[in-house]
Design brief:
214 residues; 0% strand; mainly alpha
């Protein structure tokens, strides 16, 4: 009898651990896919995409420009996700639910507002394409809608790594074609329609946060 109950208990423990890992992996995948899709759509026509166009035209060296975008986005969004995760730990569950819901709804409205890139300040002649892109992108992304979205997504989901990976991939999906194809990509892609889809996604996340207590 003892070996039977022992084996049954062991199997139940293994099943629980397997289920917890499965749901954790499923949550990470959801965080990654949602972050990728939302940011890729919101980035179309965003001021950082316009900056990518301008830097690509100025330096005509796509690889250093793309690497600069990648490093700047990783650094910026990692800080944003860390902040979002910290906020989630400090706030209570009910307060976090309301803040996230209202934040996502505000992001939905913000996404519909077209961006304009401010006049670029002259970069130092000593800076190359990579360094200039890195500095410019990191600064322009501060307070941008995609950074704020990263904060909210990291507070919504438990995995900082999945959110940062997703938002960074979303940025690259929008900005890399802009670097290589320039304004042609903007003329052919219906940015307004994509903004509406992104706004609908933010609104859905807001509604889920507000009305789904789980």
């Amino acid at each position: 009898m003892f070996p039977k109950y022992f084996l049954f208990g062991y199997a139940s423990g293994v099943r629980r651990r397997y289920n917890s890992r499965f749901y954790a992996a499923e949550g990470c995948l959801e965080a990654f896919l949602v972050s990728t899709g939302i940011v890729a759509l919101a980035e179309m026509g965003d001021k950082t995409q316009l900056l990518a166009l301008m830097l690509a035209a100025r330096y005509r060296r796509p690889v250093p420009v793309i690497l600069g975008i990648l490093v700047a986005t990783l650094a910026n969004h990692a800080l944003a996700a860390w902040l979002g995760a910290g906020v989630a730990e400090v706030l209570g569950r009910d307060a976090l639910r309301w803040i996230l819901g209202l934040s996502f709804l505000a992001m939905a409205a913000w996404t519909l507002v077209p961006d304009k890139l401010e006049k670029e300040k002259p970069q130092s002649a000593r800076l190359g394409a990579f360094a200039a892109t890195l500095i410019a992108f990191f600064l322009v992304e501060m307070g941008d809608k995609t950074q704020i979205a990263t904060v909210a997504l990291a507070a919504r989901y438990a995995s900082i790594a999945a959110v940062v990976a997703g938002t960074t991939l979303g940025m690259m999906l929008a900005d890399v074609p802009a670097v290589y194809f320039g304004e042609r990509i903007l003329r052919r892609v219906p940015a307004k329609m994509l903004h509406r889809v992104a706004a609908a996604g933010f609104a859905l996340l807001g509604a889920i946060a507000l009305f789904d207590p789980d």
